[in-house]
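The instructor's notes for this session suggest beginning with a concrete chain rather than abstract definitions. Hand out the sequence below and ask the class to guess, before any prediction is shown, which regions might be ordered.
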Amino acid sequence: MSSLSLAVRDSNTMLRRNLLHARRYPSLTLNLLLTPIVLLLLFVYVFGDVMSAGMEGGGGADRSAYIAYVVPGILMMTIGGTVVGTAVSVSNDMTEGIIARFRTMAIHRGSVLIGHVAGSVLQCIASVVLVGAVAVAIGFRSTNATALEWLAALGLLALVALALTWIAVGMGMISPNAEAASNNALPLVVLPLISSAFVPVEAMPGWFQPIAEYQPFTPAIETLRGLLLGTEIGYNGWLAVAWCLALSALGYTWSKSTFNRDPK
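After discussion, reveal the predicted structure:
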C-alpha cells in the first residue's frame, strides 16, 4: 500500500473514531451548541429593540433588522464554541495514554491529527446549520444572496472552522487536562463578543475600537454579513482569508511539532 493510501485509510479510521466519540458523548457538544442559541434568542428578544434603535441613531426600533445584523456573528461564535470541544478531546487523548499507544502502532502518524481536524470541521458545519435553522425560524432572511454568494459563505465558514480547529488542536496538546484545555480555548469564545458581532465597530468607544477591529473575527463576520445581506465587504474578504490561512499554518505547525515531540 502506498504512503498516500495508508494516510487516507488511517485518517478515515481516525475520523470515524472521533465522530463515534461525539455521538457517544453528546453532552459537551450540546452544551457548546446551546450557548450561541441562547445568545441569539437573548439578543433578539430581550435586547433586539433597544440595540436596533441605538444602531439607527435613536430611530425606530426594528427587531427584524437586528436579527439580520446579529446572525452572521452568532454563526462565527458557534464555530468558536464548537472547537472548544476539540481542544478537550485532544487533551483527553494526550493525557489518557491513547496517543502513546498510537505511537507504537503501524499507522500514519499524521492521521491522528487529521482525524481530529476533519471531525471538528464537520461538527462545526453541522452546528452552524442547526443554529442557522433556529435563526431562520425566528425571522432571519438572507437578502439578494445569489447561489455563488451562498457557496462563498459556506466556504468561508469552513475555512474559519479549519483555522480555529488547528489552533484548538494545538491548545489541547499542550494542556495537562481537559479543564485546562477548555480554559486555554476560551479566547475562541470571547473574541467574537468583542468584535462587530453585536454592534458596529464605529459604535464602540474610541479606545476600544482597535481591539475589535484588528482581530480575526471582525473581518470574517463582516465578510459573511456582506455575502448574506449584500452589505459592503471591501477589504474584509481578503483580511478574513489571510487570517484563516495564517492561523491554519500556525496551528498546523504548532500541533505537528508538539505531536512529533518525543514524550517525556
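Then share the key points. The chain has a mean pLDDT of 85. The CA atoms of residues 51 and 257 lie 45 Å apart.
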